[in-house]
Design goal:
The complex is a heterodimer of chains A (about 100) and B (about 190). Chain A has about 100 residues and is mainly alpha-helical. In chain A, about 80% of the residues lie in helices and about 0% in strands. The relative contact order of chain A is 0.13. Chain B is an all-alpha fold and about 190 residues long. Chain B has seven helices and no strands. Chain B has helices at about 1-25, 25-45, 50-75, 90-110, 130-135, 140-165, 175-189. The radius of gyration of chain B is 24 Å and the shape is extended. Classes of the chains: A mainly alpha (about 100), B mainly alpha (about 190). The interface between A and B is large, with 70 and 86 residues.
Chain lengths: ~100, ~190
Amino acid sequence: MIGVNHYLILSGLLFSIGFMGVLRRKNLLMLFFATEVMLNAVNIAFAAIGSYYGDLSGQMFAFFVIAVAASEVAVGLGLLILLYKKYGSLDLDVISSMKG
Amino acid sequence: MYEFIAFYIFAIATTILFVITVMSKNVLYSMTSLAAGMVLISGFFFLLGADFLGVVQLIVYVGAVMALYAFAMMFFDATKNVKEKHQNPSLVFLLGGLMALVFVIMFSAPIIGDNIQALNPVADGVGNAQAVGMVLFTKYLVPFEVAAVMLLVAMIAGIILAGKKMDYSLTKCEAVDEEMNVELEKGEE
């Protein structure tokens, strides 16, 4: 039997990978991929803790995280298409209009 | 024994695939490795006994979300490499590494609180899907309905945002503008 710490360390590592992607990426589509990685890492932690305590709440929250992620992708991709139509690019350096 | 082997194979493969997702310059490679990593993550859910969550992960993430990304990629240039200007990459790696360190310390420290009790204990003698259904439609009924409304709002928002001027070609925008100007002038007259 694998302890819950293994799952939590894996989840932390995956979340850090996603976080590094969010910091590093300049393309908006790639930024979306990095946020998906972070959401998946959190789901693993929820499921692992839920199974460790014999509790179903962890799985419930993972379901709601999945629902939020699905709606985020639907709205976000619509916005990305609008941005691409307007600027012809998804690069944050091209899109950014505020100088600061 | 098999659980150990499966866990470590899944863990190493998922980490490598997600690193490819984050580091790759090509959108297609990035998306493919993200989809593969999500399939492997559903493997973790099956290992943890959360069968229904694993199936939902496969259907929603690998099925729906990835299909949505694949369709959205038809609007963008997927074959071209993404050019990104990195100002100071070492700072990013430093921050990411620090965060990884903090997470590992946080999670490897004893997390076990004595006063934590299961709010919704797993029922005996029923499958995972049945237990999930019993909790979801009693204790979490209101969040479930709110999530349904949220998905409806997201669907309408997606249609409104992406569906405008869908019948015009993106590369012939000037022709579209002229056409619209002509129509506007007609309307003014």
